[in-house]
Write a structure and sequence with these properties.
Elements (H helix, E strand, L loop, with lengths): L10 H18 L21 H6 L8 H4 L1 H8 L5 H19 L4 H14 L6 H21 L1
Helix pairs in contact: 1-6, 4-5, 5-6
């Protein structure tokens, strides 16, 4: 198991971190993967990284402002890009979830830290693309079973 540190992570550690970050998005924004465009991911861009695409105000795909309009507006005031808005909103959401269910504290904080790391300029585009593709395949499987 990878422990979040300030040292540069390996590719395996980044892949695990991306997987954990994606699981947090599954909890906070069900269907997030349908709003992300992996071909447009630029991990060094606070507007086009994974969080930038989902939380940003410069990107037409921003699902967060549709799902959480009041929180999005509040966090947007102090931040210029989706990454900052996303981290602020995720932190607020995680804290509310922990208040309701303290046993989730470690897991949610770990997932949040991993999500933050994978959008911190490391080259995780291929890992995010895999997470999106896996969920889209599962969506297709669910549609055909129904």
């Amino acid at each position: 198991m990878f422990v979040y540190t300030s040292e540069s992570p390996s590719q395996e550690q980044l892949q695990e971190a991306t997987r954990k970050g994606a699981r947090l998005l599954d909890k906070m924004i069900p269907g997030w993967h349908r709003h992300m465009r992996p071909e447009r991911l630029v991990m060094s861009s606070p507007s086009l990284c994974a969080l930038g695409q989902l939380f940003g105000h410069d990107v037409e795909l921003s699902i967060a402002k549709e799902m959480y309009p009041k929180a999005w507006a509040k966090h947007r005031e102090g931040e210029g890009a989706g990454y900052g808005i996303g981290i602020g909103m995720i932190t607020e959401w995680v804290n509310k979830e922990i208040a309701c269910s303290p046993e989730m504290c470690t897991e949610l904080n770990e997932e949040r830290n991993f999500l933050r790391m994978t959008c911190a300029g490391y080259d995780t585009k291929c890992f995010w693309s895999e997470e999106v593709a896996e969920r889209l395949v599962n969506d297709d499987g669910q549609d055909t079973e129904a």
